[in-house]
Structure prediction request, 427 residues.
Amino acid sequence: MASSNERTLLDRCKEEYRVYIVAFLIVIIAELIGTHKFKIGPGMMVIFPMFYGLIFGTLLGPKLLGFFKMEEVKAASPLVLVAITPFMAKLGILGGANLSKLVAVGPALVLQELGNLGTIFFALPVAIMLGLKREAVGATHSICRETNLGLITHVYGPDSEEMRGALSIYVIGYIIGTIYIGFLASLVASTQLFHPFALAMASGVGSGSMMAAASGVLANIYPQFSNDILMLAGASDMLSGLDGIYVGLFLALPIANKLYDWLEPKISPKKSLKVGVEK
Amino acid sequence: MKYRDWIFLLTITSLITILSNLIGYKTPISESIPGVLILAGIALAGVILGKVIPLKLPMILYVSMLGLLLASPVSPVSKAVIEYTSKISFMAPVTVVGAFAGISMGKDFQTFKEQSWRMLIVGILVFTGTFVLSAIVAQVVLSLTGAI
Prediction:
């Protein structure tokens, strides 16, 4: 293998060609299967070809079917980064094409970003009760997508407990996040408490695939608003990408740390066990 | 990654996107080409901006902003950009991401198995909290500003 400095495109092809070919085949099969909708309880789950792609790709991995070698699997990570980039361009274009609508809903769009901080109050106490330590801060400060991982790496270091927590949620987000958030979107929609626009904005959590899953489901539930939903979700997702670092650094992490310092001595299982014994 | 790698991998991605758009969304290849070229071009320009501009911002931000600017009313090419890229189905590039992400998941599979059920519970709460709280704030602000 050539040294990483002098790695030519030919080297790249030699190492990764099976990944490209299989990705082609996976996309063909996934698109032939197509989009399917299932009714689950009050909600509807929409499975996009992307999910089949995820599943087939994972199955071929070294630990399961063993078709791919570990090096090939590792090489696929930067490919994810590249492949999502044109999609982000498409979202930007959707935003630009609908700029006047964006301005009209501006304040809500910006303020709902603060709703992303809700994850801390929902998840951090439970994480502490489950016995997680500093991992809990990394795991619950945000939805833990690429931007947030970058932030955590910078603030706490790549080998920190906080990073381990954030990485765990990142991985879980990859595996079940898209499916779960699509289901959640339809479930919340079925309560009839929210306007489709509010749900569309909530879909922009800062993960392109989760946003696509949630807004795709919503566009199916409210076909008359489908364009607005996709536009708002894309814009909200873009905003999450734009402000993710600042919200994370100046709001989410300080809040998560304060809450952790306050709650950890009170509700961490070991401590509460001792209190129980003393009684 | 060098620009060379970006161009090469964007080409591969674009080819698969054309395929996805053909099979999944019945768009003829010739109609997809201008759209994927524009999307890949914006992507590349965003990457370059990300490397040139000395701010610690994710390059995906530049990509998104460029797309927004090019398609906004101030852009002289907005009509062409919007029309050509509208041929690329919203979900077609995402299918490609799914395929690569799935393959890449292979390396994290062991980690995930070793991760306890705790992280699964925390993950579900993280996703729920983010979505539901955002929806509540958006609903309140939209109502207060009379947008809905």
